[in-house]
């Protein structure tokens, strides 16, 4: 079973590239819409992974954060919000 899942994971990128090439429309407006949809899906996956898999683990299962005073928790949340703002500015700028 692990080898099957490893093969599926290894093939996911080439299949995604083929799907992207196959979904490329000829019209410029349709191409912008298709790119926007694919970008939104990718952003959603990245946000889910970052928030649920990484940040939730750090905030909920870290013994230090579980016992930390509210000031430390608010500071940690402010740092996360600052990082989100910086990434949003970089995304708008790029």
TrEMBL record:
<feature type="transmembrane region" description="Helical">
    <location>
        <begin position="36"/>
        <end position="56"/>
    </location>
</feature>
<dbReference type="GO" id="GO:0000007">
    <property type="term" value="F:low-affinity zinc ion transmembrane transporter activity"/>
</dbReference>
<keyword id="KW-0812">Transmembrane</keyword>
<feature type="transmembrane region" description="Helical">
    <location>
        <begin position="68"/>
        <end position="91"/>
    </location>
</feature>
<dbReference type="InterPro" id="IPR003689">
    <property type="entry name" value="ZIP"/>
</dbReference>
<protein>
    <submittedName>
        <fullName>Zinc-regulated transporter 1</fullName>
    </submittedName>
</protein>
<keyword id="KW-1133">Transmembrane helix</keyword>
<keyword id="KW-0472">Membrane</keyword>
<dbReference type="GO" id="GO:0071578">
    <property type="term" value="P:zinc ion import across plasma membrane"/>
</dbReference>
<dbReference type="GO" id="GO:0005886">
    <property type="term" value="C:plasma membrane"/>
</dbReference>
<dbReference type="Pfam" id="PF02535">
    <property type="entry name" value="Zip"/>
</dbReference>
